[in-house]
Amino acid sequence: MPDVRSVLAAATRQLGERADAELLLLHVVQQPRSWLFTHADDMLDTDVQTAYSALIERRAAGEPVAYIAGRRGFWSLDLEVTPATLIPRPETELLVELALQRLPPDASGSVVDLGTGSGAIALAIACERPRLQVIATDASVEALEVARRNAQRHAIGNVRFAHGDWLTPLGAQRVAMIVSNPPYIEATDPHLRQGDLRFEPASALASGADGLDDIRRIVRDARAHLQPGGWLLFEHGWNQGEAARALLAEAGYAEVFTAQDLERRDRVSGACLAP
Predict the structure, then answer these.
(1) Is the pLDDT of residue 52 over 80?
(2) Which terminus of the chain, N or C, has fewer Cβ atoms within 10 Å?
(3) Which residues form the domain of 56?
(4) CB atoms within 10 A of CB 264
């Protein structure tokens, strides 16, 4: 039987990178990463090898590791993800950080996460601000079920899940903050047919000819659901900061801004409803 070191080396050659090979092996054996350093000379039995080879083949065909393993870390949470949900990405944590900066630790009231998907943003905010009520909306019933399971798994009880398109589930309710990571890729962008994006739900990625259709709708409709002084924050593409600020200014919001991610790319824009 081959040992851990040689099996990993073979998988790394097949995939062209070691990180994914390690993650998938750890998923099969259900061990932390430290296990690799202390068990490199261990022999792997046939069942483990077979299961691992099947996962490596799936990854070699382009399927995202997060969908193969069914998990992705975000903020301080380990989240279930499925092909019904967008895979949470590290750059989206900037949106959570900006939201928390505007929500005092003892904040109460309600915050809405539009298009919650796996629940990543909603659950991160709810976890950090337990006195808040977070409302997580999504047009996908399947995505909401994943988000509910993530909330239950982490025992986060201050989140309510609502099925519907964007702000529709709110009715006439007004809230202190609206956050969203909406679709913002141009419908004709060739990247949609490449890499991991091929496997993610198109409805969570693309939004019209310039990628701004859903952002336009959110900017337009959020005013009717924000309390005076309430904030709207949303993620967008690296080249959409100027357009996002223009949409917010034209709609009459105050304190319009764009924040950059760690790679100094425009990533999140926002503004408040003037008191």
Answers:
(1) yes
(2) C
(3) 4-61
(4) 8
CATH number for position 121: 3.40.50.150
Q: For 226, what's the count of Cα atoms within 13 Å in the CB-facing half-sphere?
A: 25
Q: What percent of the chain is modeled with pLDDT above 70?
A: 97
Q: CA 90 to CA 184: how far, in whole Å?
A: 17
Which DSSP letter does residue 82 get? -
> Among 206, 214, 213, 215, which residue's Cα sits nearest to residue 186?
206
Q: Are residues 100 and 32 in the same domain?
A: no
| 112, containing H or E segment | strand 110-114
Structural domain contains residue 69: no
Residues 6+ apart with CB under 8 A from 34: none
Look-up of token digits 């000379």: 41
Residues 41 and 130 in one domain: no
Residues 17 and 110 in one domain: no
Both tokens assigned to 260: 């950059």
| Tokens coding 166 | 């964007």
The mean pLDDT of 86-111, rounded to a whole number, is 94
**CA distance linking residue 35 with residue 22, whole number of Å:** 10
Residue-wise pLDDT for 236-267, tens only, equals 999 999 999 999 999 999 999 999 998 999 99
Which region, left, alpha or beta, applies to residue 117 given φ > 0 means left and ψ of -120 to 50 means alpha? Answer: left
Tally of structural domains, the chain: 2
Question: 232 - beta bridge partners?
Answer: 178, 271
Distance CA 65, CA 79 (A): 13
- The span from the CA of 159 to the CA of 231, in Å, is 19
Amino acid at 180: S
Specify the residue for token string 């259900």.
30
Same domain as 55, residue 91: no
Residues 15 and 89 in one domain: no
